Amino acid sequence: MLLVSLPEPAAAKCLTENTGLCELLTDRLVSFYKALPQSMDPLDIETVESVNWGLDVYNLKEDAAIFTGKRPLISFLSWLDYCDQLIKEAQKSAAAVMARNVRERFFVSVMEPQLMQTSEVGILTSTALLNRIIRQVTSEALLQEMIYFLLGEETEPETAATVAQNPLRHRLIEHCDHLSDEISIMTLRLFEQLIQKPNQHVLHSLVLRGLGERNYLENKPQEEREPLENGLPHDAVDLEEDPLFGDDLSPDSRLSGSDWLTSSPPQSPDNSKSDGKTEVHKIVNSFLCLVPDEAKSSYQVEGTGYDTYLRDAHRQFRDYCGVCQRWDWRGNPKPLEKCNLDSPFFEGHFLKVLFDRMGRILDQPYDVNLQVTAVLSKLSMFPHPHLHEYLLDPYINLAPGCRSLFSVIVRVVGDLMLRIQRIPDFTPKLLLVRKRLLGLEPEGINVDHMTLLEGVIVLEEFCKELAAIAFVKYHAASSSSSP
Q: How far apart are CA 340 and CA 338, in angstroms?
């Protein structure tokens, strides 16, 4: 630890080039990893106590009784922690060489074949281990190498033809939509962990490089566009015109008296303020009114209100701003006149898989839905103007063939409205399922359409969460721009 931190470049060069230090560190990491059992319970990997290389107290008998492989797992994680701390303390050029060594000799040589295998048990164990590794790595140099290993170093926009350019990245994203729900959930958790790491390349690689030109927006001069109806182009997904959605969905007609909106700006006659930002109360109401009343159940259960999401969103948004304050993100979107709106839009492999899964929310297991919405809500939380516009503004004019998070949810709701009509006693069944999920009702006889009902509950909660995130972000932006 002391030797690697010596500030002289000659010492760093000597340590990394003329000694076996790098090989010793990585070979030991590899041997600890290879000593792990071939299959382990992901929950054991996730919940084993946090590890510190200098405080490795153990009792072989006790460890073996808790779960098979606990001792080898702690040995591996302890040595990983030591390597991570060593790289963190090291002189900068020595840290870079050591981190590159870990990438080549451990991640590429040992972990990549494990992640690319076809055995479901093997995939699950190696993904759970990778998730734990991501959680634990804190040194800047090792984090950078690990992210380049997982996602590649490419920065130019993806196209449908280049998604498989990096086989590991492609495989991991595909695993978010695996036939095995367990693998899907574990891989989604891995990405949830990854996007929260303080490294700009993660978000750029997964989502931002596809949004840079804002070519998800319709490219027509204002005079060529269809006249606006209710503030929306007539071919947009206009819920008010949809016979399935009833008459009370106008963004202005709901929640106008709620006390949390009293600080919103006064309503203007059109849908956009002069700076181009859609007024927040219209966005909030658009999300809150998406799910029709007969598919809502939270208002009948105490403690499941929208205000809980507001508190959480406020705290999380502050944390996320802290993570990305050093990143070069402009406060306003790139001006449209500087954007290449004619280039074809591709949402990117990662968002494609997330949107596809979101579109199947009524037909997927509850735990999968929770994880898909968790990743999407975390992406929505980041204060990047294009990400915010694409994920949280229901009023953008989408280019033909493009979809946004809002348009995906609208299609789900349209499908739901048709299905509700075919299910007798839909609302009482929905309330019963919600109470069971909250532990307020004992598990009793099976309820028909359980997957659908649980999906509807997740959908309602997700819309409340998105509304809260939009509200908190708007107020943070308006308070920071006011004198």
A: 7
